[in-house]
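Task 17 of the worksheet. Students: predict the tertiary structure of the chain below and write it out as C-alpha cells. Keep your answer in the requested format; marks are given for formatting as well as content.
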Amino acid sequence: MFEKLFHTINQKIQLTKEDLEVIKPFFIARKIRRKQYLLQEGDVCKYTAFVEKGALHSYTIDEKGNEHVVQFALEAGWISDQYSLLTGEPSLYNIDAIEDSELLVITHTSFEEMLSKVPPMEKYFRLLLQNNMIALHRRLSASLSLSAEEKYTKMVNAYPTIIQRVPQHMIASYLGITPETLSRIRKQISTAK
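Model answer:
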C-alpha cells in the first residue's frame, strides 16, 4: 500500500529503509468509494490524504448550486484543506472521490510527530509546498491571461489521462468555463488533427 508514497518521496529526497519503516505507522490506510466524501463543507478537516490509487477533487458549491472545482488529486497526489486542518475552523470545501480510491491519510498531530522522528521529511514537504505555490501562481496567471482553449491544452499536456478519468463538467469547472465551451474546444481540437 505504501509503494506510490515511497516512490514519490524518493523522487525528491532519499530516505533509508529504516526511515520509510518509521513513517508507515503515522499513516492510516483508507478506501473510499466513488462519490464518497473525505471532507464536507462545514466540517473541520482532520486529515491530509495521499492518493495511492484513484482520483479525488476539492470544490465549493455556490448559492446557485454550481460546483467550482479547486483541485484534482490523482495517484501520487496530496489533497486536504490545510487552512481548516491547521486552524480547526470549518472547511469551505468538499473533497470527494471521482473514482473508487485508496488513500493514506495522516492527522496533523501524526504529521508533526513524523517530522520530528524523520527530519528529512521536513525537506520533502518544503519542496512539495514550493511546487504547490508555483503551480498555484501559474494557474492564477493562466486563468487571467490564457484563452479557454489554451487553458485546456495546457491541462491536457500536464495531465494526459485526466480527460478519460474525470467527467467533462468537472474539467470545465476547474478551467472556469462552461461544459458547452469545453465541448466546443474539444471538437475544434479533434477536427484540427
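Marker's comment: Residues 3-120 form a domain with the Jelly Rolls fold (CATH 2.60.120.10). The chain has a mean pLDDT of 95.
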